DNA sequence: TAAACAAATAGATAATGCCGATTACTAAAA
DNA sequence: TTTTAGTAATCGGCATTATCTATTTGTTTA
């Protein structure tokens, strides 16, 4: 979504008019470069070509040559050669402070680049599907922020399919999802295991267990296509040779909490992440009904483009997830 | 004097501590140069090495090479190569606006240098001895300012010797003096002719003319050593085989107006530029006493170091003097 | 799978940077 | 004046770098 897209595309997309052929046909083709400026500054400070050459550990003829080049590219004299000594011209006097400034700016840029590559700070946008985004990431974000206070942590919750495709389109750098997608561009790294459990309101069902076959007799609530929960469930059904179409689907809902709410209101049963219903199970509002001889394990993955370089705050976050 | 010295020496003299061996032992010895940055900017804008190469009229491998160099010198990746496309890394995103800024600054410097070499503006300090500084330059300055309003005109009045030596020491770029000095470093260009006249108060003398011989009978006021007026006068005496020591010197004074005042008060006679006493001669306060068969002509010169490059406002002033 | 496209690599050549030795010039000293 | 010392410019040559074309490698699309 545009929220995150701007992160990468803002200036990248701007064509910026003007300043076209400014490097085309200059007198000698030579352009004022950084090295020239460094030498100029040294000559100006030392008031001597020879002393500048000692200062910079290069030969005096090289200094002469570079100053000449610089003078040619600027089309002016920078120093009057007076025999025993030199004096800067008006142009030299103008150039000197600017050159110092420019070299300073260059150093600053170098520092900023280094910092951008090592400083754990800035926006950290993690895409996540419902379960990790709601029940896992907030905790992780808290402890991460404590360690790296300069990071602005943002959690973007969409279903697993949406998150994955955003990463494919470079709208997002990494995410935590509950379903793998076949793509050789993406890395999926297993993070933690979850279990889907069949839950129902005690008013709807009070059986202790069900067999797979019995499933088709139960009114059923399901998630939308693209949901990792749904995909895990369907994979499970396939594995146990149960045709999903024979389920008695009473509704398709767009979020875990919507499904949970509907289950609480006895509209049907559903399979939901244990982690998302743990509270309700503990309090007895919902009932877990084990399926005979089977568990629906599912894995959450960290997903990212395998070719993209992650900024340091993202790398730190990935480490944080694996370690703590 | 320090007033003008600062013009050339201010930053020139400052050694500026710190930032010593910062260019010494970097990984590949390569330094981020302007050309690299231009190529980087083009790649970033075009989102493609190939399109950047077309844009800049160099080959694609050259672009690859330069980006690689830049990446090495910054010790980071700037673009992730994704196969068909590229995306800037966080470092690339940081570098881009800075690089644009830096290239802009460079252009600005070029413009400023050009301007410094052609723009008739800024301080214009003209050294002058008493006569030209008092009776000629103010008029010239007025008409010059009218033509070039951006010039700050300053007249520094010292005697001819002082002005000339300041120019020799680079404390001044040009001056107008009434006496030549033998030096192969200086250019003296004749500007205008003046005449020294023998003047006295009517109370002191009422002769119509005097002979050279009669001079020793007259109480005489003279200028200090270094004065162009005095030197011209002594040259004259030498030419007519008159020994200056035989003059009846009653006082040596430090300025033309001091001498003039003293003459008015009948302390003695003196030789003064006609231009400086024209008013008094016209009104009859002072009397011009021609010396038989002789005129004391003297020349004013524009003087400057022959090796120094003059800034544009100085060149414009020199032209102005010759023409108008 | 083949075709098209983009960047990386390789090998060759031209341009440039850099050096040491020398020259030319100036200023100071003998 | 001549000599000496100091400083920048020039020269010839070597080393490095920039750039090119041709090719390879890898990715995406048909």
Structure, explained:
Chain A is of the alpha/beta class and 324 residues long. The first copy, chain A, has eleven helices and eleven strands. In chain A, strands 3, 4, 5, 6, 9, 10 and 11 form a seven-stranded mixed beta sheet that branches. The first copy, chain A, has a two-stranded antiparallel sheet with strand order 1-2. In chain A, strand 1 and strand 2 form a beta hairpin. In chain A, helix 2 crosses helix 3, helix 2 packs across helix 5 and helix 3 crosses helix 4. The longest helix of chain A is centred in the first third of the chain and has 29 residues. Chains A and B meet through helix 1, helix 2 and helix 5 of A and helix 1, helix 2 and helix 5 of B.
Rg over alpha carbons of chain A: 33 Å
Give the overall pLDDT of chain A as a whole number.
Answer: 85
Taking the alpha carbons of the first and last residues of chain A, their distance comes to 30 Å
Can you summarize the main beta sheet of chain A?
7 strands, mixed
Low-confidence runs of at least 5 consecutive residues of chain A: 1-29
Q: In what range is the share of β-strand residues of chain A?
A: 15-25%
H-E string of chain A: HHHHEEHEHEHEEEHEHEHEEH
Strand pairing plus helix content of chain A: what structural class? alpha/beta
Quaternary state of this entry equals homodimer
Shape of chain A: rod-shaped
The chain pair with the largest interface is: A-B, 59 and 59 residues
**Care to count the β-strands of chain A?**
11
Compute the number of helices of chain A: 11
